[in-house]
Amino acid sequence: MQNRLIKKTGDELSPLGFGAMRLPLKNGKIDRIKAKELIYHAIDNGVNFIDTAYLYGDSEKFLGEVLQGEYKDKVKICTKLPSISVRKYEDMEYFLNEQLKRLQRDCIDYYLIHSVDLKTVNRLLKRGLFEFLDKAKSEGKIKHVGFSYHGVKEEFDLLIDGYDWDVVMVQYNYFDENVQASTEGIEYAASKGMGVFVMEPLKGGILAGKMPSDAEAIFKKADSNKTTAQWALQWVLNNRNVTCALSGMNSMEQLEDNLAVAEVTSPMSMTFEELETVELVKRVMKNALRINCSTCGYCMPCPQGVNIPECLKIYNEKYLFNHKGFVNQSFMDYYQYVGGIMGNAGNAGLCNGCGKCLRKCPQKLDIVSELKKVKKEFELPGLKYILPVAKGIGIPVYNQITKLLNR
Q1: Gyration radius from the chain CA atoms
Q2: Peptide bond before 309: cis, by omega within 30 degrees of 0?
Q3: For residues 185 and 378, what is the distance between their CA atoms, to the nearest angstrom?
């Protein structure tokens, strides 16, 4: 694949980067064998940039273990300071030193301030953020600095101009073209020689795999051989100001799909007809999607045990795929995955409105209000009394009803 140059750092990075937030899991932990196979295969096929963060569970430690020997020098590592956890200057030094240990490196290639807006940066400035970055660079602990942005368009340029940043990470896909930094913000960052890393190019998988029938029909008519994920990734990489699109690939099929796009997509290579096709699909999706959630999981864990991403995902799928009738596929999925029939309950009705999730959400969603919609949509009266009985007979009953729904 054709690498892309960051003017400010001189690094040439692969247009496809490996996002290590959604590594494959086994029994709730990283499936080390499967994840290692994916990462090595990606590197062997030209991927030279991997993104992680302090808050991504065991991701940093895992990468430190597997990126050794010949693979250690084949990739640039990007990780992030957990801004939400910084209370004083010493916290920043503690987190950085801990991350160096986890990653088993003397220096981090790209160090970002995690999930910031103008308010967050102003809070960190009072704790000596810029002094910390300057010192860490002078000591050789980090090479290049930036931030991952989760604010509004109006504040983006102010942050870009506030420090000598090398790179920035933004959410960007054809559905969210004009949110957060927006296309204009990306262009502004690139005009200053900064690298632009894109997170959520597939919007947490919403723009990949199964889509509403109207949307799939539009894509198939334009190119029957191209997957929905390939359309979405191609659209992002078509932007000449994008350095690298980060994809959280957790299967070999997903990896091969993305590698195929990165191999052939150069900046400004999409035709007018292809861009028009994506625009038509975007209109269909915007009409169907009810909650603009990317299932990133930043809102977790919930103190009450609500599985927030899964609740919102299932609610969205009901409307995306037009599931009708009282007992439909989304209804069954809700009780299987969050209702408690096949595991611990994480349903929306457990929410007590504490609001701890609100300040964590990159999309600035009113999660408490959205969960009320989910509860109203799916939860039966007397649920807490029904579940103990349903759980005992849930698996065979669920399987039978699912078979009927899928006929």
Answers
A1: 22
A2: no
A3: 39
Provide the sign of the torsion angle of the four alpha carbons 188, 189, 192, 196, taken in this order.
negative
Give the distance, in angstroms, between the CA of residue 279 and the centroid of all CA atoms in the same chain: 22
In 3D space, the residue among 165, 171, 161, 154 whose CA is nearest the CA of residue 207 turns out to be 171
Find the Cα–Cα–Cα–Cα dihedral 49, 55, 56, 57, rounded to 10°.
140
Q: Across-strand partners of 149?
A: 116
Q: What angle do CA 270, 226, 279 make, to 5 degrees?
A: 50
Strands (E), 20-136: 25-26, 29-30, 49-51, 76-81, 108-116
Phi–psi pair at 323, nearest 5 degrees: -75, 115
What domains sit in the chain, N to C, each tagged with a CATH number?
4-282 (3.20.20.100), 308-405 (no CATH)
Name beta bridge partners: 77: 50
Type of residue at 212: P
- Each residue's pLDDT, cut to its tens digit, for the chain (407 residues) gives 999 999 999 999 999 999 999 899 998 899 999 999 999 999 999 999 999 999 999 999 999 999 999 999 999 999 999 998 999 999 999 999 999 999 999 999 999 999 899 999 999 999 999 999 999 999 999 999 999 998 888 899 999 999 999 999 999 999 888 888 999 999 999 999 999 999 989 988 888 878 888 999 999 999 999 999 999 999 999 999 999 999 999 899 999 999 999 999 999 999 999 999 999 999 998 888 788 887 788 898 899 999 898 888 888 888 777 777 666 777 777 877 777 665 678 888 899 999 999 988 887 899 999 999 988 888 877 666 555 555 554 444 444 444 444 44
Write the secondary structure of 241-309 as one string of H (helix), E (strand) and C (coil).
CCCEEEECCCCHHHHHHHHHHHHHCCCCCCCHHHHHHHHHHHHHHHHHCCCCCCCCCCCCCCCCCCCHH
Give the end-to-end CA distance of the chain in Å, rounded to a whole number.
43
CB 395 within 8 A of CB 351: no
Q: Note whether 149 and 88 are within 8 A (CB).
A: no
CA distances from 197 to 50, 78, 255, 264 (A): 11, 10, 18, 19
| CA–CA gap between residue 8 and residue 192 (Å, rounded) | 8
CA distance 58 to 63: 9
